[in-house]
Specification:
Residues 42-240 form the Peptidoglycan beta-N-acetylmuramidase NamZ N-terminal domain. The protein contains 14 helices and twelve strands. The protein is an alpha/beta fold. Helix 5 (135-148) crosses helix 6.
């Protein structure tokens, strides 16, 4: 009996390993779309996560003779060397000589003039499955611009590392911002291509306009397939641990608690100088070029939680955003009136915008339990889950 159980366990481990190894992104299936690009003037919305066989998709397609006339870069820039919330200017890519237009500066949406010499746009950016992440807002605006100017958008799909769960309060659209653009929960459980179909299908683009999209889906992908990103999706999500903790820890951006910006392990630690004596673990944020040049509590020792070795399998098993850390840190912090009355950056806005609801802050202050808070997310959360099913490309 024991041998049989071991055999079954090894078979299951092998299955997961093989399934993960065999995931093929939309971008890597060049045979499915390069012929479609022939004779067209191409615009690409990309960043460092846009890779083909481990190399920049722009560099790779440019070398293959694809006529890329313009590159559009989101937050952090096309090459990913700009810190969070920092506006990016237009430039010319020195590696290819292609003009680079910033969508995180003077313009956040391609203009008619920018699209005039483009026949087809490509969107190829890795998302991490959390509502706060700004790339979905970028995709929305690109889809709108394409629809308004009669341009087709080709989406090269990529895995969602947090695609295994759907959880959190659905955004109250009175709190719409760059970190919450659509009425979805904190963790939406969709890939960018699925999400694009939802934007079209639910009429969420301006005036209900529809964008003509063509999708290159992945092969051998399931929403619950563990996936370690081959490229950091942004400077401060630099480990698999931080990516998986991000849906839970980004809420702290609207509090007086540091999430480790200014260290080499952001979104894996939590702390504040006023927690000295309550926690033994400490870290000191420093200025780090390209990551966090003016971090909260720069050069000041913070005390709190070290989650670098937290077993993220627990998150996967629960399929929930962890509110326990937020509740714990609020209870531990001595100056309750300052905990939420704080904005760490203009980019992140206040806590309510991150939470997507005016209620969560009030509920934590009132001492509600995690279970009581979760009940308040219904029925909107269940309604979203049902609606989401219409747009799924994968199980």
């Amino acid at each position: 009996m024991f041998k049989k159980e071991i055999t079954l366990l090894l078979s299951a481990v092998l299955f997961v390993s093989v399934a993960t190894a065999q995931i093929c992104t939309g971008a890597d299936q060049t045979e499915k779309y390069i012929p479609y690009l022939k004779g067209k003037r191409i615009g690409m919305v990309v960043n460092p996560t846009s890779i083909i066989d481990g190399k920049s998709s722009v560099d790779s397609l440019h070398k293959r003779g694809v006529n890329i006339v313009k590159v559009f870069g989101p937050e952090h820039g096309f090459r990913g060397d700009v810190g969070a919330g920092v506006h990016v200017g237009n430039s010319v890519d020195p590696a290819t000589g292609i003009p680079v237009i910033s969508l995180y500066g003077k313009n956040d949406k391609p203009t008619k003039e920018m699209l005039a010499n483009i026949d087809l746009m490509i969107f190829d950016i890795q998302d991490v499955g959390a509502r706060y992440y700004t790339y979905l807002a970028t995709m929305h605006r690109v889809m709108e611009a394409c629809a308004e100017n009669g341009k087709e958008l080709l989406i090269l799909d990529r895995p969602n590392p947090n695609g295994y769960f759907v959880d959190g309060p659905v955004l109250d659209m009175k709190l719409k911002s760059g970190i919450g653009y659509h009425p979805v929960p904190i963790a939406h459980g969709m890939t960018v291509a699925e999400y694009a179909q939802m934007l079209n299908g639910e009429g969420w683009l301006a005036n209900g306009i529809k964008c003509k999209i063509k999708i290159i889906p992945m092969t051998n992908y399931r929403h619950d397939t563990p996936y370690v990103l081959p490229v950091n999706p942004s400077p401060n999500l630099n480990t698999n641990q931080s990516i998986l903790l991000y849906p839970s820890l980004c809420l702290f951006e609207g509090t007086i608690i540091s999430q480790g910006r200014g260290t080499m392990f952001p979104f894996a630690v939590l702390g504040n100088p006023d927690l000295k004596g309550k926690y033994s673990f400490s870290f000191t944020p420093l200025a780090i070029k390209g990551m966090s040049e003016t971090p909260l509590f720069k050069d000041v020792t913070c005390y709190g939680l070290d989650l670098r070795k937290y077993d993220v399998k627990k998150l996967r098993a629960s399929k929930k955003v962890n509110l326990g850390w937020l509740i714990e840190m609020y209870k531990s912090y001595p100056y309750k009136d300052k905990f939420f009355d704080f904005t760490q950056s203009k980019q992140m806005g206040n806590f309510d915008k991150l939470a997507g609801t005016y209620d969560l802050k009030k509920q934590i202050v009132a001492g509600l339990s995690e279970e009581e808070i979760r009940k308040s997310w219904e029925p909107e959360l269940s309604v979203f889950k049902k609606m989401r099913e219409k747009y799924l490309l994968y199980k």
